Amino acid sequence: MTRPDDSTADAGLDDRAAICPGSFDPVTRGHLDVVARATRLFARMTVAVVAHPGKRALLSLDERLALVRSEVGALGLGRPVDVVSFDGLTVDLARRVGARWIVRGLRSSEDAGYELPMALSNRLCGVAEVETVFLAASAEVAFISSTLVRQVAAAGGRLEGFVTPAVAAKLREKYG
After folding, report:
1. Domains of the chain: total
2. CATH number for the domain including 72?
3. Can 31 be counted among the known catalytic residues?
4. Is 16 a catalytic residue?
5. Which stretches does DSSP call E strand in the chain?
6. CA–CA gap between residue 71 and residue 24 (Å, rounded)
7. What pLDDT score does 128 carry?
8. Is 86 within a domain?
9. Domain membership flag for residue 10
10. End-to-end distance of the chain based on CA atoms, in angstroms?
11. Which of 3, 37, 69, 107 is the catalytic position?
């Protein structure tokens, strides 16, 4: 889509750069799968942890950032992945970091029903046109959600299939 009011609106965005936003409360094996696969598609990746000041998270923003940095670093992706926090519009963050793409994982048609309107809105509401790329979840992690992980953790269930050992330890610490 060309923006007739500003032909330079896309200037400064890198076609090889993407952001992968989320609350990561907590970061799951599903999140890590999407990040790892996205780094094979894009030369520069930024994982963006949403602050959501009005939303009550189990893990603090600092805890989520530390876990995401640690877990993404442990993936051994062969290149650095930036991890940042943000609050506000995802497209504004994309512009700030120079990314043309937003990467979102899809586990189900329910996810698609939520994500598609968001992707269309993101394309239109930013100063520069930013597109969303959807990655279908890998079969072995398609059932994992942060909500499910928190429920299992709260009930004292086994977490290893859902999250890494470091994340499981942090959740056990939170839930006692």
Report:
1. 1
2. 3.40.50.620
3. yes
4. no
5. 14-22, 44-50, 82-86, 99-106, 131-136
6. 11
7. 73
8. yes
9. no
10. 51
11. 107
